[in-house]
Design goal:
The complex is a heterodimer. Chain A is mainly beta. Helix content of chain A is 12%, strand content 41%. Chain B has a 10-stranded mixed β-sheet with strand order 4-5-6-3-2-9-10-11-8-7, with no helix packed on it. Classes of the chains: A mainly beta, B mainly beta. Strand 4 of chain A pairs parallel with strand 1 of chain B.
Chain lengths: 116, 167
């Protein structure tokens, strides 16, 4: 069964850090002059979202456990809350998370790949 | 050589901009395989979540999504058609299959449009897989038509070796 994002972790990235990149799903002809022809590349593609979450020590431990034990260091997909409030998104960790300690909290940055 | 394709396909091919997506479907058959392997170049639908599998439904058959790139064969009269196929090799499942073949596998290549998955626009049957190169990330294969030039013609020649009773 596909794993769910742990309930005790933040439901999303902080507002100021959140970024998403829609897929480049159009292929263009290379023309020397004039407008290029354009075609849709595929029927479904992945898009990215990334940002930072502020976690407590306990949450960060839970996050590390989720990454290593549940989703195999990011090789497996999991359900993640949708920023727009729709049904959960099927995502995969795209890059290894980076974390820094800021006083009593952890700032954890990572990128997600949203799967079709 | 001309091809019969649908007006939709022609319209998409000649349009300045189009939302049509051509999808390449491969059917790999071999005498050592119990069932053919069905592959699609497009992750049209999510077929299952556990394991996570994408694919394309066409004519009642599920073609599993395997990222690959292909070049359409040329139509030159002096050489048999050749197709270059580069497949993803991340999960290594195809390596064992390919290495188990002692003879070339047959590959049927079909092109459909994403808007009409049940209508085959172009079919390239009887291609044979050859020159397979297996790398860390990709498998590159050349598909060639069974060249008629290699077939004996005429089929029987009246030589002492073939028909000794005549001599």
């Amino acid at each position: 069964m596909t794993a769910f994002w742990p309930h005790d972790l933040p439901k999303g990235f902080t507002l100021s850090s959140y970024q998403e990149t829609r897929p480049n799903n159009v292929i263009y002809s290379e023309t020397s002059i004039g407008p290029a022809k354009a075609r849709r590349r595929t029927t479904s593609n992945v898009w990215d979202q990334n940002g930072t979450m502020i976690m407590t020590y306990g949450q960060y431990r839970s996050f590390l456990s989720f990454i290593s034990d549940v989703i195999s260091d990011g090789a497996q997909a999991f359900w993640f809350p949708d920023r727009l409030g729709s049904a959960d998104l099927l995502v995969r960790i795209k890059e290894p998370p980076k974390a820094s300690l800021d006083g009593n909290s952890w700032q954890v940055s990572f990128a997600l790949e949203v799967l079709p | 050589m001309s091809r019969e394709v649908s007006p939709n396909f022609l319209g998409a091919a000649f349009a300045q901009e189009t939302g049509e997506v051509p999808i390449c479907l491969l059917t790999v058959t071999h005498e050592d395989l119990e069932d053919p392997i069905y592959l699609s170049s497009d992750a049209t639908t999510r077929l299952s979540e556990e394991p996570l599998v994408y694919g394309t439904d066409s004519r009642g058959q599920q073609y599993l999504y395997l990222p690959f790139e292909f070049t359409l064969p040329d139509d030159r009269g002096d050489t048999p058609p050749r197709v270059q196929l580069t497949m993803d090799n991340i999960d290594r499942s195809l390596v064992a299959v390919l290495r188990s073949f002692a003879t070339p596998a047959s590959v049927m290549m079909e092109i459909v449009l994403a808007s009409d998955l049940d209508t085959v626009e172009i079919t390239m049957p009887a291609l044979q897989m050859s020159d397979v190169t297996i790398g860390d990330h990709t498998i590159t294969a050349t598909l060639v038509a069974d060249a008629l030039i290699n077939e004996p013609h005429p089929a029987g020649q009246f030589t002492p070796g073939a028909f000794p009773g005549l001599f």
